[in-house]
Amino acid sequence: MATNFLSMKKSSSSGGLNAMVDDGFEYSLGPPESGFSLFLADRTKKVHFIRHAEGYHNVATKETGDNNCLLRGSSPASAHKLYDSRLTAKGIDQAERL
């Protein structure tokens, strides 16, 4: 069951939204008035996204100028010569420098 946030009533005591009638649970959308919440800071995680280093499939697409060399037709993916492509020497160096 979806909750319609637009039709919720604001609490007269805190100004927060009541999720369910008479449940006592209140919350507000957006950051707190202070702009920072210790509660949220304790419950969040920082995620770092790192792009992979150069692999032989990257070299093949660079040499051909397009991604057609990665197409496999009706063959299974594991039959393609670039399936699970390994890192090049440059790629290994890139990964070591992370």
Any overview of this molecule?
The structure is a single chain. The protein is mainly alpha-helical and 98 residues long. Helix content is 23%, strand content 4%. The protein contains three helices and two strands, in the order ββααα. The protein has helices at 38-43, 56-64, 89-96; strands at residues 17-18, 26-27. Strands 1-2 form a two-stranded antiparallel ribbon. β1 (17-18) and β2 form a beta hairpin. It is elongated, with a radius of gyration of 26 Å. It starts with 16 loop residues before the first strand and ends with a helix. The model has no long low-confidence stretch (mean pLDDT 76).
Write a concise synopsis of the structure shown.
This protein has 3 helices and 2 strands, in the order E-E-H-H-H.
Q: What is the makeup of the main sheet?
A: 2 strands, antiparallel
Structure classification = mainly alpha
Pick out the low-confidence regions: none
In sequence order, what are the helices and strands, one letter per element?
Answer: EEHHH
- Largest beta sheet: strand ordering: 1-2
Mean pLDDT: 76
- Rg over CA atoms: 26 Å
- Beta-strand level of the residues, as a percent range? under 5%
Shape: elongated
Number of extended strands = 2
Annotation field: number of helices: 3
Q: Into which percent range does the helicity of residues fall?
A: 10-25%
> What is the rounded distance between the termini?
45 Å
- List the quaternary state of the chains: single chain
